[in-house]
Design goal:
transmembrane; membrane; OB fold (Dihydrolipoamide Acetyltransferase, E2P); transmembrane helix; 2 helices; alpha+beta; two-stranded antiparallel ribbon; MT1774/Rv1733c-like
């Protein structure tokens, strides 16, 4: 241990361990990765808001281009076995009045198990073709959340990979340094 002067000018033993260059590199990388993590969180929020906004614009445009009509189901839609009670949407024959006022018949989406004679909502485009409904509020939120989570997962994976690589390099450098030091000190210990 080294003797260093204290505030009164007396020499006292320095009890701090000397810092290796690899320790300083590890500290610096840690701070950089923590800062990058915070920026990643901000980026994820921005991407989430932008994705929500983009889907909201699409929903607005589709809502203006599409018309909701009521269709009457002509045949009971197939019922699928399910423990959860969830039934997927399937195409069933139905009738509805087209945008031109003429009756139409064709396949429309309906939940499995919908009985014949039931009314279901159908969306038509400007040509009178049955299309998917515009995105709902839930879909807007889901798009934003999924985009943000995607950024976090991708960015977090990159940061974790950087950390693992840096730790491996630091451990390898420390092992080489200890090996060199042991080459010098080892013979003294074995006497």
């Amino acid at each position: 241990m080294n003797a260093v002067p204290n505030e009164q000018g007396r020499h006292v033993e320095n009890t701090e361990m000397p810092r290796r260059m690899t320790d300083l590199v590890e500290d610096a990388v840690t701070w950089v990765l923590i800062s990058a993590s915070l920026l990643l969180i901000v980026a994820a929020m921005v991407v989430g808001v932008l994705a929500h906004g983009r889907v909201a614009e699409r929903a607005l445009a589709e809502g203006q281009e599409r018309t909701k009509v009521t269709a009457t189901v002509l045949e009971t839609s197939p019922l699928f076995p399910s423990d959860s009670g969830y039934q997927p949407r399937v195409a069933v024959e139905a009738t509805w009045v087209g945008l031109d006022g003429e009756p139409r018949t064709g396949p429309v989406p309906a939940t499995g198990g919908t009985p014949a004679g039931s009314e279901v909502a159908v969306w038509l485009d400007r040509n009178g073709t049955v299309v998917e409904p515009p995105p709902t509020g839930f879909e807007l939120v889901a798009a934003g959340v999924l985009a943000g989570v995607g950024v976090i997962l991708l960015g977090g994976s990159v940061l974790a990979l950087v950390w693992v690589r840096v730790k491996r390099a630091i451990n390898a450098a420390n092992a080489r340094s200890w090996e060199r030091e042991w080459d010098v000190m080892g013979p003294k210990w074995t006497r």
